[in-house]
Design a protein that fits this description.
The structure holds 2 protein chains of 2 kinds.
Chain A (H helix, E strand, L loop, with lengths): L9 H25 L4 H16 L3 E4 L2 E3 L4 H8 L2 H19 L7 H54 L5 H34 L6 H4 L7
Antiparallel strand pairs in A: 1-2
Helix pairs in contact in A: 1-4, 1-5, 2-4, 3-4, 3-5, 3-6, 4-5, 5-6
Chain B lengths: L1 H30 L6 H9 L2 H9 L17 H27 L2
Helix pairs in contact in B: 1-4
The chains are: A mainly alpha, B mainly alpha.
Pfam families (chain B): PDGLE
InterPro entries (chain B): PDGLE_dom (IPR025937)
Subcellular location (chain B): Cell membrane
Chain lengths: ~220, ~100
């Protein structure tokens, strides 16, 4: 879902940067407040893992492929969508500047879509469903829905940019990412969260692993 | 000393994470699907041919050193090196940023 430079006119690309930047600053503020010697290695390992897995596109049929985004996974582990914004910003910076994956002018839109929208929607969907669906189900649905909604927003941006027609863009982006979100995002997120919960529950934010509710 | 014990365990988590990330990095060039991603596929389906060739032919705003996760003329091995380098770069940047930001 990395938007190249040519897909959004400069004036609109700047607006997405202006929307994304406050979230980037808030994520740095989160890092100052929350990170300690325990959490820094986890953050670094997750960021490296997400960069690597984003290079691994999986086929979803119809001549299309997709890869994990990972913002919801990071947000669930750290108990804050800001963690997802921070990690995705770092990953997108390296992808954009070193590998030409996603444009530099459109990086604001990419941070907004993959970091902010997928992370926030994914995390809060997970948080809302955790008590009803359990950690496995809630992380699957949260990650899937977060990715799907970021694709919907991306289709709207493409339509405002005059690049895609609105309805056709929504239909194709929606359909492809419905599947990508199911296979690439939901499944991997649920498997990783379940594995961590089983082996190292102390790594997960305590308010989220406590199924009796927040703040106990 | 429980803090020291836990941080030792977290370093193990770090090493395990790095090992998994590097394993994926090395395998990705061989396993990744060559099919276009969701956005490119959508563009191919909903944009008329003339506009599409303009979009795809447009130069990036900034030239990147290793476009498309590859090194020119180095084939699969170049892709492995590019993705491993990217993984280590992301690791280094996020570790340094985390260390700088922590309270």
């Amino acid at each position: 879902m990395h938007i190249p430079d040519s897909f959004i006119p400069m004036s609109q690309a700047i607006i997405y940067w202006l929307i994304a930047l406050p979230f980037v600053f808030l994520s740095l503020k989160w890092a100052r407040k929350e990170l300690d010697d325990m959490k820094v290695p986890i953050l670094a390992a997750l960021a490296a893992g997400i960069f690597a897995i984003q290079a691994l596109n999986i086929p979803i049929g119809m001549g299309t492929s997709g890869h994990m985004v990972g913002a919801t996974l990071v947000a669930i582990i750290f108990g804050s969508p800001m963690a997802g914004v921070l990690v995705l910003t770092l990953v997108l910076l390296v992808q954009g500047f070193v590998f030409g994956d996603g444009g530099i002018t459109t990086m604001g839109a990419n941070i907004l879509n993959m970091g902010v929208i997928s992370g926030f929607i994914g995390y809060y969907t997970f948080a809302a469903l955790r008590n009803k669906a359990g950690i496995k189900g809630a992380s699957f649905i949260g990650a899937w829905f977060g990715l799907f909604m970021s694709a919907i927003v991306c289709a709207v941006q493409m339509s405002i940019a005059g690049t895609f027609p609105l309805m056709a863009g929504l239909a194709t982006m929606g359909l492809y990412h419905l599947i990508i979100g199911f296979v690439g995002e939901g499944l991997i997120t649920a498997v990783v969260i379940t594995a961590i919960e089983k082996s190292r529950p102390d790594l997960l934010d305590s308010s989220l692993t406590n199924t009796k509710g927040v703040g106990v | 000393m429980s803090v020291n014990v836990s941080s030792g365990i977290n370093m193990k988590f770090l090493y395990a994470g790095i090992a998994i990330a590097l394993l994926i990095s090395v395998l990705a060039p061989f396993l990744a699907s060559p099919d276009p991603d969701g956005l490119e596929s959508a563009a191919g389906g909903v944009v008329d041919e003339k506009t599409l060739s303009e979009l795809e032919g447009a130069e990036p705003f900034v030239e990147s050193p290793m476009p498309d996760y590859s090194i020119e003329g180095q084939g699969k091995m170049g892709e492995v090196i590019a993705i491993v380098a990217g993984t280590l770069l992301v690791l280094g940047i996020s570790f340094a940023l985390g260390k700088a930001a922590k309270k």
